[in-house]
Structures are given as structure tokens and as C-alpha cells.
Amino acid sequence: MNRRDVLRAGAAAGVAGLAGCVVPGDDEEAAFTESFEDGLGGWETGAAIGPEVDLAEFDWAVDVSDAEAAAGDRSLRVWNEGSYDDGVTWAVHPVSVEPGEAYEIEVEGQFWSESESFNTIRHALMRLGPEPPEVEEDFPQPGVNTSELGETPYGGLREPLWLADGWHDYEFEWTTPELSTDTLYLAVGTAVIWEADATHYVDDLSVTVDGD
């Protein structure tokens, strides 16, 4: 049984009531899990594009859909246009932590692509940090995954989508500095690479926190 299965089983047994917080004194907790069965809930959506294009001209949408699901019956749908060969679209949710601690955090999620493609049409974006993203530069650079970087100001990845037909797992680890905040922000979404409109789905998210 992998970590995600353990977390899901724990939630079914009543651990779901702990989602969204780290319990002091426990070495490792499922600080947050999400399968979008109840809609967007506490998620907020956003987008950004380069300065040569007005954001109002960039078409995008983030909502919850029953068209595809990796866990349960629903998932997060992320759509954006490719006309400008640029732009990022995301959803962000707060995750509560205990301040004054440093953590080893693992974030996992599944992204859906329509098919496998030799062309890199979109990048998957994942980010966890003390502030929510506002611009594309708040996410990692292409090909970066913080798992091997040691302590960093925020954790995340930016890796190619369309690696497989259907669902594909993405994950990163983040070694935090000592945190002065009680809230981190988990963002997931896509970045435009190819000049084509594209829909992706995101599901089965988990944030696992290992304290000192």
C-alpha cells in the first residue's frame, strides 16, 4: 500500500477531520487531502501571462468537473487557450501548519492528459509556499523539482504533461526553513507551452508533513 492509499484509508476512518492542520507532537500527518468531491470549496483560482498581453485577453477556466476522476467522481478541470504561446492558470488552497518548526513535506497529485504526445503542450505546475502565487515566476522554472534541492524558500515542480494517456502521478518534496507562518498555500495548475487550447484535470492531492 503506497502513502496515498494509507492517507485515503485513514481519512475514511475519521482522520479527515484533521485535514488542513498539523497536529503538534505528531511526527507525520496528512496535513491536507483533496479529491474535489465537494466542489471548489476553499480553493481560489488565478492566472497570469507575460507583460506583452493583457490578462483580460487570456482565456482560461478552472472549475470542478465529473468528466474525469482519479479518486471519487470529480476532479479539478483546468483549461487555457494557447493563442499567445504563454500563460499559466492555477487553483490555490491554504494549508495550516504549526509555526516555529521546520518540516520535510511531500506533495503528491495526479494530472490527466488527453493522450501521450511527443510535443510538450503544457507543463504541470505544483507549488507549496508561505505566499500564494501571483505571477508565472512564482512557480519553479521548467524542469525543476525541489525534491533534490535541499532547503528552499518554497517547494514545487514544473514538469511536462502529455507523458501518458490519462492520469499520471506528480510529486515533490520540500525541505522548509523554520516557518514563521501558520499558513502555507498549495497551488496546482498548468503552463502553456504549445499554441493550442488544452484541458487537463487534477485530482487526488495530498500534503504530508514530517516534523522535527
Give a brief outline of the structure.
This protein is mainly β and 212 residues long.
Layout of SSEs?
Elements: H1 3-12, E1 28-34, E2 44-48, E3 60-65, E4 75-80, E5 88-96, E6 103-113, E7 122-129, E8 155-160, E9 166-175, E10 183-192, E11 198-211
Descriptive report:
The protein contains 1 helix and 11 strands. With 212 residues, it is mostly beta strands. The longest helix has 10 residues, at 3-12.
Average pLDDT number: 89
Radius of gyration: 17 Å
Shape: globular
Question: How many helical stretches?
Answer: 1
Number of strands: 11
Structural class, judged by helices and strands? mainly beta
Tell me the β content.
35-45%
Poorly predicted parts:
1-27
The end-to-end span amounts to 25 Å
Helical coverage, percent range:
under 10%
Task: Give, in order, the helices and strands.
Answer: HEEEEEEEEEEE
Major beta-sheet overview: 6 strands, antiparallel
Q: What would the keywords be for this entry?
A:
212 residues; mainly beta; 6-stranded antiparallel β-sheet; 5-stranded antiparallel β-sheet; 1 helix; 11 strands; 5% helix; disordered N terminus
